[in-house]
Design a protein that fits this description.
The structure holds two protein chains of two kinds.
Chain A: E1 12-16, E2 19-23, H1 29-35, E3 42-43, E4 50-51, E5 64-69, E6 72-78, E7 88-92, H2 118-122, H3 128-138, E8 155-166, H4 170-181, E9 186-190, E10 204-206, E11 209-210, H5 211-224, E12 228-231, E13 233-239, E14 243-250, E15 253-267, E16 271-273, E17 286-288, H6 289-299, E18 306-311, H7 315-325, E19 329-334, E20 346-350, E21 354-358, E22 365-368, E23 371-374, E24 377-381, E25 384-386, H8 389-393, E26 398-401, E27 406-409, E28 416-418, H9 428-438, E29 448-450, E30 471-473, E31 478-479, H10 480-488, H11 494-501, H12 514-524, H13 529-532, H14 546-550, E32 562-563, H15 567-572, E33 576-580, E34 583-588, H16 594-607, E35 610-613, E36 620-623, H17 627-634, E37 647-653, E38 659-669, E39 672-677, H18 682-694, E40 703-706, E41 711-717, H19 721-726, E42 730-731, E43 745-750, E44 753-758, E45 767-773, H20 777-788, E46 794-796, H21 798-808, H22 830-834, E47 856-863, E48 874-877, E49 884-895, E50 900-908, E51 917-922, E52 925-932
Parallel strand pairs in A: 1-7, 8-9, 8-15, 9-12, 15-28, 17-24, 18-19, 18-24, 19-20, 32-34, 35-46
Antiparallel strand pairs in A: 1-2, 3-4, 5-6, 5-7, 10-11, 10-29, 13-14, 14-15, 16-25, 21-22, 22-23, 26-27, 30-31, 33-34, 35-41, 36-39, 36-40, 37-38, 38-39, 41-45, 42-43, 43-44, 44-45, 47-50, 47-52, 48-49, 48-51, 49-50, 51-52
Chain B: E1 3-6, E2 10-13, E3 17-22, H1 36-44, E4 52-59, E5 64-71, E6 77-82, H2 96-101, H3 106-111
Chain lengths: 946, 113
């Protein structure tokens, strides 16, 4: 294949479909392939038709590649917007072994069996499963490498500005400069790496300078004067309150994603050339006229030697002139009867009909009015479609302009204005003037001279009576016949048309196909184009990689766990970490064999003493004259009647009466309490206290401070715990049982720091929860281990604690309770029956539902099969033959203390069924269990003071 | 992402806020005097209007509950007010902080639409 480049081909090596080529700095993959004379760059989605480069930028439907560069593979990259880098290796998607020779190419001959709505008509019960696999294997485009995880290196940035200008073409540059002169903070973005927009390829003089030079100067001036100019950056979505999402490409540097809050947004996104619809209009070599001009001006690529330019408007004439000047033999096929005179060196035919293309893998001829003329490229220009995506995303409405044959913004919307070609101002001077005004400009804006200020478009919509297959949507293989079929089958609304035929649903989002599709539907149903309407525009305007959306929020940053201040100390002891209630905590210590370690730690806590890091436990201080009243309202159990220095266990209910959390509250004085709720519920408990503190309580008389992170809490538990505590050197604090009985709290000092000791037990054994400021935690942990050596103290992880509390029947809110569990289901009916005064959830406890006799109640479950019951297994009743769930197992462990399994569960009418046997059903297996009291170990509580 | 005005901290992205409920709901009490129907209405029934509404929102970072007036259909923010006694009413449109962030005053503009 010969080079189509006017100058030297280039020196950047790359590979496409296994063959080696060379391109230039600044080439896109598409321009590099065109320069090398490659005409087939892909295969179509459904029929595997050979396809060539059709557009020159984001509108491209055909040139999709799986690109490998610098060890990173990106699937489905758009060849027209992806820039060439040395050593790039890319393949056509949906083709094997190559786009030129695709084994599935024969599918095109089966097109009659692949009509619109193929999936809806094929995937019908009961047969669909028989062919699902084969069809799925054929569907889809690029290939993901499952072993390749791209790095999480995309930074997300938040920013704000007064004026965001989208598009650095003539209108956008004029708007940005005017805005900066008006004293606004300006951000200008453009998805191309170079400013100028259409000035990059359409010949023009602005303020006495050639277009690209003027654009470069404008950007330099903007940057020097404090504007933020982001090139290679796509504004792909507008969200509530003028938040723009920007995807910035930075070459070899990682992409960036911006969330930019703008006071005003000027959308100057330009317009996109439309295809003409005629038989075989998808052949390689058929291309948008605007794209061919862009390839010529930006990349010195002349797309053909004998070129036919088919058009219904004036703008293609300048294109034809430029191509002829570059050396091609050019024929303009004007579909109109009247138009401008033929440019120099261009032959012109007026009033012709475009009847088809000769050639399969490349254009060999064009049939005009019954006569076929030899050609190697057919350029089409069906008129400009303004890029109004962002305007519509923000809720803007469109109106049909009969003279421009385009949908334009109907009226401005607050916070956004559309300017330039995106607003139908196709003439350069009009676009500059409108941009200038949109950017708060007064007086005159930039002045311009260009040759193509006239448009003169005439309708050239798809005609149903034409012969052959005429493509509307190239990327999704939707033809005029598919649109006609949809109309016949009554999918006539544009939204139905889209979903039934998939028109406009490909990754190009119908940038070249939507208007032709709805024009065809309008003609087929006898309606006007505005009556037919457009589909809804939704973000993103172009495909944005998931890596950009996800940013760094992947892996351990996806939902970061809270870390203990003693994490390193735990790791030094061989701790295995797991997440509990949002905290990363030691599950067990010393070894890979978790089962063994857990049993060992549990035995140490029962026989001697264990050390447990309970720092995440809530430490919410409630202070002020109304502290007691607030806590009484917050709690199911009355709190304020506690004596100072004493602790009470209780529940907190939602207003629906459901148990939200349990925990202990210590009273330090009448105006000072510490709420120790469960670790995972701390933020929630703080907020519910805040809510009631601010209403109905008086926020000047009660305060809520979350001190959880400020204090570390290390617990000594087991029969030897007091002797270890006594060796720690706590001062001003009497550890004797008379001064510090179970459920009491004392304050003192430890090595000069304040310290608190609470006798609260979650294991059922004598326990001391010792809290010191977090900065002293490591020192206290070391002191405990040192003091505990003589007693065989072991560090204990969360798993052993969970086991020990299950032996005692102590519940975990949210594990042993669910979204229906009320306190009387847990055996705590006292406050409901006796308490006066309001508290959260009170009224709900007396509703009909709360009083049902068949509620699920918290009971123990003794396995009768010698092995632990599976957690989550259901209790089953088979009265009447049909099995019915009567509840489920909430916790289950092997108890080393009792040498048998222990389990807890919520079982229907459980309290009145103690001693009954029930069936426990799990994954097809039946087990037997006896309903038992929740407490399986030391029911009298003697060990608390042992 | 919407921009909500905390009366204390100024405009912040909506992810910093938590919905507290429709404004104007009074908790019926004491419990023994409240009918099941009234309690159920308090718990479960909301006006859920399409259009302008008054709601209680919580700013998660400063823990302040406040009154937010907004339009559920257009997402226009009409204003915000502290619920504290004696605190001046702060509205988004007149909030100096909001001006600094979005001089075009998106709220005011959208409120008028």
């Amino acid at each position: 294949m010969s080079s189509r480049r006017l100058g030297p081909l280039g020196e950047i090596p790359f590979r496409f479909d296994g063959k080696s080529y060379f391109g230039r700095e600044g080439d896109t993959l598409a321009s590099a392939l065109l320069a090398n004379g490659v005409s087939v760059v892909g295969r179509s989605f459904k029929y595997h038709r050979p396809r060539g480069v059709f557009g020159s930028w984001a509108e491209e439907p055909n040139a999709l590649f799986d690109v490998t560069a610098e060890g990173r593979t990106t699937p489905n990259a758009r060849g027209t917007t992806e820039f060439l880098r040395p050593g790039m290796d890319f393949r056509a998607v949906n083709a094997w072994p190559s786009a030129e020779h695709d084994r599935k190419g024969a599918l095109d001959r089966l097109h009659r069996f692949l009509p619109a709505g193929f999936y809806y008509k094929t995937f019908l019960w009961p047969d669909w499963a028989r062919f699902e696999g084969r069809i799925r294997a054929m569907a889809g485009l690029g290939r993901l490498d499952p072993d390749h995880a791209p790095p999480a290196d995309v930074a997300h940035r938040d920013a704000a500005c007064d004026l965001l200008v989208v598009g650095a073409g003539p209108a956008g540059l004029a708007a940005a400069m005017a805005g900066l002169r008006a004293g606004k903070r300006v951000t200008l973005v453009d998805d191309r790496p170079m400013p100028g927009g259409s000035l990059l390829w359409r010949p023009a003089i602005v303020d006495g300078m050639p277009g690209p030079q003027w654009a470069g100067g404008a950007v330099a001036w903007l940057r020097e004067n404090g504007a933020r100019v982001l090139l290679g950056t796509t504004a792909f979505g507008i969200y509530d309150h003028n938040l723009a999402a920007l995807w910035e490409r930075r070459g070899k540097e990682p992409d960036r994603l911006w969330r930019l809050r703008a006071g005003k947004i000027v959308v100057a996104a330009g317009a996109i050339d439309r295809p003409l619809v005629f038989p075989d209009n998808d052949r390689p070599g058929v291309m948008l006229a605007e794209a061919a001009l862009a390839f010529l001006r930006q990349h010195e690529v002349l797309v053909g030697d004998r070129i036919v330019v088919a058009t219904n408007n004036d703008r293609a004439f300048a294109t034809a002139a430029a191509l002829a000047k570059a050396g091609a033999a050019v024929t303009v096929a004007d579909l109109r009867q009247k138009g401008p005179p033929a440019p120099q060196g261009v032959s012109l035919r007026r009033g012709v009909t475009l009847e088809g293309v000769v050639g399969g893998r490349r254009v060999e001829g064009v049939t005009l009015g019954g006569e076929t003329i030899e050609a190697d490229a057919l350029l089409v220009s069906g008129g400009l479609t303004p890029s109004v995506h962002l305007f519509c995303q923000k809720g803007g409405k469109l109106a049909w302009d009969e003279s421009l044959l385009a949908f334009l913004p109907r009226e401005p919307i607050p916070g956004m204005v559309v300017a330039g070609a995106a607003n139908g101002r196709f003439a350069l001077s009009d676009a500059l003037a409108e941009g200038h005004r949109a950017g708060f400009g007064t007086g005159d804006g930039p002045r311009a001279h260009s040759d193509d200020e006239t448009y003169g478009i005439q309708p050239a919509w798809p005609l149903e009576n034409a012969k052959g297959r005429q493509w509307i949507d190239f990327q999704n293989d939707v033809t005029l016949k598919d649109v006609a079929l949809a109309a016949r089958e009554n999918f006539r609304s544009v939204e139905h048309l889209k979903r039934y035929t998939t028109l406009g649903m490909a990754t190009d989002q119908g940038k070249t196909s939507n208007l032709n599709g709805l024009a065809a539907m309008a003609a087929l149903t006898g309606r006007s184009i505005p009556e037919t309407g457009t589909t809804t525009y939704r973000p993103p305007v172009v495909p944005v990689p998931f890596t950009a959306i996800a940013g760094r929020r992947r892996g351990e940053f996806f939902n970061p766990a809270r870390r203990l201040v003693l994490e390193n100390e735990h790791r030094a002891l061989g701790a295995r970490f797991r997440e509990y209630g949002g905290w990363l905590r030691p599950a067990w210590y010393d070894g890979d064999d978790g089962e063994q370690a857990i049993q060992r730690e549990a035995r140490a806590a029962r026989d001697g003493v264990a050390i447990f890091d309970g720092s995440p436990l809530g430490k919410i201080e409630v202070m002020g004259p109304q502290a007691g009243a607030l806590l009484d309202f917050n709690s199911y159990n009355t709190i304020s009647t506690l004596k100072p220095g004493r602790i009470r266990y209780g529940f907190m209910l939602t207003e629906s009466g459901v148990v939200y959390d349990d925990g202990v509250t210590a009273k330090l004085g009448d105006d000072h309490y510490i709420v120790s709720c469960s670790s995972g519920h701390v933020p929630g408990v703080v907020l519910r206290l805040e809510e009631w503190r601010q209403d109905p309580f008086d926020p000047a008389n009660v305060f809520v401070h979350n001190m959880t992170a400020q204090w570390a809490t290390l617990t000594l538990t087991g029969p030897q715990s007091r002797r270890v505590a006594e060796k720690l050197g706590l001062e001003n604090l009497d550890l004797g049982d008379a001064a510090l009985p179970h459920m009491a709290l004392k304050r003192g000092t430890w090595r000069g720091s304040p310290a608190r000791v609470a006798r609260v037990s979650f294991t059922g054994d004598r326990s001391y929860e010792i809290s010191v400021p977090s900065a002293r935690a490591a020192e206290l942990f070391a002191a405990m281990q040192e003091a505990g050596k003589a007693f065989g103290a072991l560090a204990m992880g969360s798993e052993a604690l969970l086991l020990l509390r299950a032996e005692k029947g102590f519940l975990i809110a949210g594990k042993d309770t669910d979204g229906t569990t009320m306190p009387h289901d847990l055996g705590q009916a006292g406050p409901r029956d006796k308490r006066n005064g309001e508290y959260a959830g009170r009224r709900s406890l007396f509703m009909e539902e709360a009083r049902r006799p068949d509620r699920r109640q918290f009971v123990g479950l003794a396995s009768l099969d010698e092995r632990p019951l599976p957690t989550g297994a259901h209790g089953v009743e088979r009265a009447g033959g049909k099995p019915r769930s009567v509840g489920y197992v909430t916790s289950s462990y092997w108890s080393p203390t009792l040498s048998r399994p222990v389990a807890l569960g919520l079982i229907e009418r459980g309290f009145s069924r103690l001693g009954e046997e029930i069936e426990i059903f799990h994954l097809g297996q039946s087990l037997r269990a006896r309903i038992a009291p929740v407490c399986a170990f030391d029911p009298e509580g003697k060990r608390l003071d042992a | 992402m919407q921009l909500f005005p905390c009366p204390f901290c100024g405009p912040r992205p909506e992810t910093e806020f938590h919905f507290g409920g429709e404004a104007g709901k009074t908790r019926p009490e004491p419990a023994p005097d409240v009918t099941a129907a009234d309690w159920s209405r308090f718990l479960h029934l909301n006006r859920n209007p399409k259009g302008e509404t008054k709601e209680i929102w919580l700013h998660l970072t400063c823990h302040e509950f406040f009154l937010l007036e907004r339009d559920t259909a257009t997402h226009a923010v009409l204003g915000a007010r502290s619920l504290r006694k004696g605190e001046p009413a702060a509205t988004a449109a007149s909030d100096g902080e909001a001006e600094a962030h979005t001089p075009e005053t998106t709220f005011a503009a959208e409120a008028g639409s």
